[in-house]
Design brief:
Length: 162
């Protein structure tokens, strides 16, 4: 019994010794943020949720009451044909998502200049499974959106106000 317990603890000890640490919620150099984004922006909506769930930063409704302002400059989804069969039917698409933003103080000093985060995923297509492929496409877009939100959060955490 002691041998099994020791064998189970060995990987834990090595993981701790190598510097492995679970990812924590990011810490920010500001307490209040204003999101200057269109109301219909799905990425901005997810960013608000992610920021609010951290508990240390408040999303405010007035830009003058904020420490920083996140301007959403562009949000774009694309679906591009990248593969055709011998008879000209589509066999593969590339899904793309781009998100442009900048972070500034309410007075206009840029903390993060215009930045773009782009994601892309490939998806095969068959006419016989069109409904299933449509669902897969929506899942891939949601996955890209979640990844963009995480990358944006990391960039916001790296911003320095001083």
């Amino acid at each position: 019994m002691k041998r099994r317990t020791f064998a189970a603890l060995v990987p834990v000890l090595f993981a701790g010794g190598c510097g492995f640490e679970l990812r924590r919620a990011p810490t920010f150099a500001f307490q209040k943020i204003y999101l200057n984004a269109p109301a219909a922006s799905p990425i901005a909506r997810d960013l608000k949720k992610a920021i609010a769930s951290g508990g240390t930063v408040t999303v405010v409704a007035d830009p003058l009451a904020a420490d920083v302002v996140l301007d959403v400059l562009a949000e774009q989804r694309q679906k591009v044909v990248v593969g055709l069969s011998a008879v000209g039917q589509v066999t593969e698409f590339e899904l793309r998502m781009r998100f442009r933003f900048r972070l500034r103080t309410p007075q206009g000093r840029e903390l993060i200049p215009d930045a773009e985060i782009a994601q892309q995923r490939d998806i095969s297509f068959t006419e016989s499974a069109a409904l299933a492929k449509e669902s897969e496409e929506q899942l891939l877009y949601r996955d890209m959106q979640a990844d963009i939100v995480l990358q944006t959060m990391r960039r916001l955490a790296a911003a320095k106000i001083a």
